[in-house]
Amino acid sequence: MQSDGKGILKELGKTGEKLTAIGIGTWKMSKTDESVMAIQAGLDEGSNFVDTAEYYMNEEMVGKAIKDREVFIATKVFPTHFRYDKVIKACEHSLSKLGRKSIDLYQLHWPNKHVPIEETMKAMEKLVDDGKIRYIGVSNFDIEELKEAQGAMKKYEIVSNQVEYSPMVTYIENGLLQYCQREKISVIAYSPLKHGSAMNIVSSKRSAISEIAEKHGASVPQVILRWIISKESVIAIPKSSNPERVKENIRSMHLDLNADEIAKIDESIREFKYSSTKAKFGPFISFFSRF
Ligand SMILES: NC(=O)c1ccc[n+]([C@@H]2O[C@H](COP(=O)([O-])OP(=O)(O)OC[C@H]3O[C@@H](n4cnc5c(N)ncnc54)[C@H](OP(=O)(O)O)[C@@H]3O)[C@@H](O)[C@H]2O)c1
After folding, report:
1. Residue 193 Cβ contacting ligand 1 at under 6 Å
2. Does 31 score more than 70 pLDDT?
3. How far is the CA of 193 from the centre of ligand 1 (A)?
4. Which CATH class name applies to 2-288?
5. Catalytic residue flag (residue 56)
6. Mapping DSSP to helix (H, G, I), strand (E, B) and coil, where does residue 192 land?
């Protein structure tokens, strides 16, 4: 972890690439100029990383927001496109929508057990060889799935796993987080504010998070995000369509929480027992991925 005037920088996997610890999530961002302005507000505030996906159907808007800017761009291929030819085609679509010659991080959005992982990873490696993508990542993969995906590759390494992580959804702490840290696979924490419901959950009781926020003159989302990125190898990608809230989230990198405060939050969130998106929707996504 490295900190300078611009915030906290973290290495992506073992690539040497430095990403700001807070990136910009874009799921459910509409294709409007307001969304473009929200992303650009985040980049102006110092974030250098934007995450999208073919599934979000907003890559063109994202492309407009990042045009002529030095931004690390991540997108994802949906599991219905995991056959070799479909991966290549999906990537070409994403490139054209984003208006880029190459995608910095191309991620498998969800595991798909209906397509041999060797076939999918062969296509991902071909995309790197052809200069269409720079790094390969996955999303919603557990340890076994990560090992299988890595084992199916001949030349390159998986640099990141995008998974749900917030004070309310901490299942990755039961082994996946530690595995990624050991293997130097970056964890990209999605839904870090639990789709916006984290603030209500926190304010419905006197929690360590709200007390720490008050003490620092910070907001609850800022304390939550700062807690997430205090974890080794973890980067968070909150989404907001509001430029002021995007900036507020990115400024969490400047919040100084000490080890005692982090430990207090660790302790206080044990009472939160919310199931993950993977537990709730993984089986449906897996079912529909066969088509
Ligand atoms: N790989 C995957 O399967 C997967 C799944 C889900 C998400 N993701 C990625 O992770 C990103 C973030 O996750 P998410 O969109 O699910 O949820 P999130 O970032 O946890 O929460 C977004 C919600 O919080 C609100 N919000 C954000 N900042 C706020 C602030 N400072 N104060 C008050 N409200 C705030 C937003 O409302 P406003 O927009 O109105 O501000 C929005 O409703 C996504 O955009 C996407 O890029 C990936």
Report:
1. yes
2. yes
3. 6
4. alpha beta
5. yes
6. coil
